[in-house]
Amino acid sequence: MSPRVTVLGSVNIDLVTTTPTRPAGGETVLGTGFTTGPGGKGGNQAIAAARAGARVAFLGAVGTDAFAPQLRDALEAGGVDVTLLREASGPSGVAAITVDAGGENSIVVVPGANAAMEALTDEELDRIAGSDVLLCQLEIPLPTVTAGAANAHAAGVTVFLNPSPAQQLPDALLDNVDVLIVNETEAVQLGDAALARVPHLITTLGGHGARWRGPDGAAVPAAAPAVAVADTTGAGDAFAGTLAACWHLGPATALRRAVAAGALATTRPGAAASSPTAAEVDDLLARHPGPNPARQ
Is residue 237 flagged as an active site residue? Predict the structure, then answer.
């Protein structure tokens, strides 16, 4: 049976500009393209988890603007249950993204409706408690994430947190997190004391893959297969969603599949749209088998 993953987080419309180089302060550059599409770390991770094979429900909010139906439709088309998706008066969340010729990006996020995700309803709490996994990020109010994690922990649900954008985390949240997913910059910003509070620490290493530290303190790496990078937008979300969806297979196997999903996401443009299917991950791993997972 596929795991039940609930994602509590943000959904945005992405306004993506491509340009040979990203502008420095005060500089104007000519772009080479412009697209719009669904994004937001929560929405991206929800679609990634669904494509990885999980049964996914999304808890978040869209606005009352013209982008809202597009965001709702994109989640549904990605295989995500949006039964409890909220509608908040005003604009939906927006992310302005600039991608350079090397595939690197700069992003400005305006929360919009995401900021209205407060005071979880009884229905939302019940959905979380009935899940196998709760996956959270920090693009909605921190008290909401803290409340969701506490509810999940009390119900025996495995709690994943991708603390991005990075900020200091209260003990009340960290003590309810089972799996913390950080990049190297976020790890430094959070500090060793915070990282040590969680049983499972996943550190993403860009093109070098990722590393898992379990409760016994031993580190298990997973190397990234070599791919042709086109756009790094959404790669971290593809990684997080796949990791949550595959955790029931064991941390080492889930890590390896997540690294492959993140690598594949860099080979195509877009955020949510770049997440691969389970079959695509299988194919990449078959072509780049690497070492067997050291342990589960």
Answer: yes
Look at residue 215 and give its three-state secondary structure.
Answer: coil
Q: Cβ neighbours of residue 37 under 8 Å, at least 6 residues apart?
A: 13, 14, 16, 74, 270, 271, 272, 273
Rg, Å, the chain Cα set: 18
What phi and psi, each to the nearest 5 degrees, are found at residue 294?
-70, -35
Q: Are 31 and 159 in contact (CB under 8 A)?
A: no
Q: CA 252, CA 246: separation in Å to the nearest integer?
A: 10
CB of 272 closer than 8 Å to CB of 44? yes
CATH of 4-11+39-93+113-287, one of 3.40.630.30, 3.40.1190.20, 3.40.50.620, 3.30.1330.200: 3.40.1190.20
Looking at residue 294, its pLDDT comes to 40
Q: What is the pLDDT of residue 272?
A: 82
Are the beta carbons of 123 and 146 closer than 8 angstroms?
no
Strand order in the sheet with 33-39: 33-39, 12-18, 93-99, 105-110
CA distance 29 to 16: 15
Catalytic residue from among 175, 237, 282, 283: 237
Inter-CA distances, 27 with 32, 66, 105, 130, 265, Å = 16, 31, 16, 51, 30
Q: Is the pLDDT of residue 296 over 70?
A: no
Using omega within 30 degrees of 0 as the cis cutoff, is the peptide bond preceding 111 cis? no
pLDDT of amino acid 72? 97
d(CA 65, CA 91): 5
Look up the pTM and report it: 0.91
Q: What is the pLDDT of residue 232?
A: 79
Write the pLDDT tens digit of every residue in 18-33: 999 999 889 999 999 9
Say how many CA atoms lie within 13 Å of 163 toward its Cβ. 30
